[in-house]
């Protein structure tokens, strides 16, 4: 059976996961300041780690990624949902400290030029997949347009970000990362 961690679980903890959060009001399984390392787990504990709209709230993305790498087993899956930097709602929340593009986690990818030019961390991940707005956008004409934009962005993320994202901003990015140890 896979060991699953839901970091920043809030009130919607993933079924079968251990929920860790810094907010005592959400009654997590483990109460811990997510900005403070080390997290209260041994090395190589988890097969899957989920971070649903939490990393943007934390102080140091590199430090958090290094800590998630430490507590993940080799080959573990990390699913990270973050606000897209063009999303209107990304800037509404006064607790958001970071914003993300399709390239943001390439700095942790061993084979990516960003990691080679700017080695911020010795911890590596393989970027398995990046998905804009994983959820269906809506129905009707605007929903159809939104879903077309989402499909285009997922097929051509570089073109979308460079030429269309300022006119047709999507809301969220989901990164699927594999832990390389």
Explained architecture:
The protein is α/β, with parallel strands linked by helices and 181 residues long. It has a single domain, classed as 3-Layer(aba) Sandwich (Rossmann fold), CATH 3.40.50. The protein is built from four helices and seven strands. It has helices at 61-71, 113-117, 140-155, 157-164, and strands at residues 4-7, 18-21, 30-31, 46-52, 72-83, 124-132, 172-180. It has a seven-stranded mixed beta sheet with strand order 3-2-1-4-5-7-6. The two termini are 21 Å apart.
How would the blueprint of this fold be written?
Layout: E1 4-7, E2 18-21, E3 30-31, E4 46-52, H1 61-71, E5 72-83, H2 113-117, E6 124-132, H3 140-155, H4 157-164, E7 172-180
Parallel strand pairs: 1-2, 1-4, 2-3, 4-5
Antiparallel strand pairs: 5-7, 6-7
Helix pairs in contact: 3-4
Short synopsis of the structure:
This protein has 181 residues and is of the alpha/beta class.
Write a concise keyword list for the protein shown above.
single chain, 181 residues, alpha/beta, 7 strands
